Amino acid sequence: MTVSSASSAPAPSKLGLWGVVMVIYFTVAGGAFGIEGLVGSSAPGMALILVLLTPFIWSIPTVLMVTELATAMPVEGGYYVWVKRALGRFWGFVQGWTAWLYGLVVTASFAALFTDYSSSFLNLAFGVDLLDTSKLVRWLVAAALIAVFAWVNIRGAKAVGDSSKVFAAMVFTPFIIMIVLAAVKWGANPVPFWQPLTPPDTGLMGAFGLGLFIVMYNYLGWDGVSTILEEIRNPLKVIPRAMLIAVPLVILAYLLPVVAGLSAGVDYAKWGDSVNFPELASAIGGRWLGVWVALGGMFCAMGLFNAMILSNSRLPFVFAADRYLPARYVQRHPKYGTPYRAVILSAVIYALLVVGPFETLAVTTVLLYGVSLILQFVALIVLRVQAPDMARPFRIPGGLPGVTIVALLPVSIIILAVRGTILEEGGTFLMLAGTLLASAPVAFVVLSALFKRGQADTLSHDLPISHD
């Protein structure tokens, strides 16, 4: 049974192809913002290599996994249901719980990011620094953002997709102008913007390792769209097409602004510290362009937050459908058909985290997301063995060896990233990450006793193997 078939509420509005593309874009990237530190840590040459190479060893394997499972089991809750189908209720819960915790921390950080870019915009445009001096004003701005986009999400996935198209246009436009102006200037005075390959006194592997952990964060989130599969028109066809468009779009959205910024001749070692894209745009086109790019950063944060609410709020919804949370969170809006109570619950938590510990918790996101993604790849392989006859409109080629190879690439990167974070953060990371991971089995036992009490799941983990 799916969520839609279990409710008498009206069906929610559904996303078409370009709405899905924009939601994917904003759950993964949202713009070139955040990639600046890659250049500062790894130097221009290695940064460009990583922007081009990382999708092949990190993003594309994840996209292949998501596309196969999404078209085989196009149900609300996505990866939560996939892992439950393959590994059972406990591991399905662990998958959903770790993904929810990760999403809560990251989504709250996007609300804070909005205040950061709002501050940059006000400083550049008007010389106003109120957001830098008042924590209360910063929280009120973040809370207003949360309230507005909670309402957009209550109106439905289509409203999120339509607004994401507007935000994308507002993000792309100043970057396109920046890229064109940089190309004209570079044509008149060609400089080897790709040099040096690595920072001084840093070898190839050192520069590669430093940059890989930065760029992988900018290329994750491809599985986020899976939680809203019942809110997509014809997901069996739309998901593969949307991924085919979104992957090159995300790559170009990072690559071209980085190339343009490098051509400005600003010291690359300052990237990500005192120099970010608004400053680079100012160096290329003047203060007006820097202000415009800073404004684009605000729209980027809006798009990121808007899309992440859509994806993340469906997890308490499906938890409630499977009776791990109170039944009120599975209720859908009488007009819009959306899980409005789950959206409101998520919004309240975001508002608390913005003034709370999200910056401290952010260090754990590599492990939370890593556990979530590894479980999805395990589910991919297990389902190939357990359910070889499952209808798979999209199938990763190469049989079981093929899916195993696809899984090994990103899983290896996750292990390296976790190891690197442990070495860098030490005891703080281990304590926080261990506590959050331990919360999954504890929550499973406690919530099962409080709410489930032996009742069957609404979302069947034994889904049919045919779409007929």
UniProtKB/TrEMBL annotation:
Cellular component terms per the entry's GO annotation: plasma membrane
Bilayer disposition of the protein: Multi-pass membrane protein
Coiled coil region boundaries: none
Subcellular location(s) per record: Cell membrane
Chief place of localization: membrane
Keywords linked to the UniProt accession: Cell membrane, Membrane, Transmembrane, Transmembrane helix, Transport
Origin: domain of life: Bacteria
UniProt keyword Methyltransferase, yes or no: no
Protein name, as recorded: Amino acid transporter
GO terms assigned for molecular function: transmembrane transporter activity
Annotated transmembrane regions: 15-35, 47-70, 90-114, 136-154, 166-184, 204-222, 243-266, 286-305, 338-355, 361-383, 403-423, 429-451
PANTHER family reported for this sequence: AMINO ACID TRANSPORTER, POLYAMINE TRANSPORTER PUT1
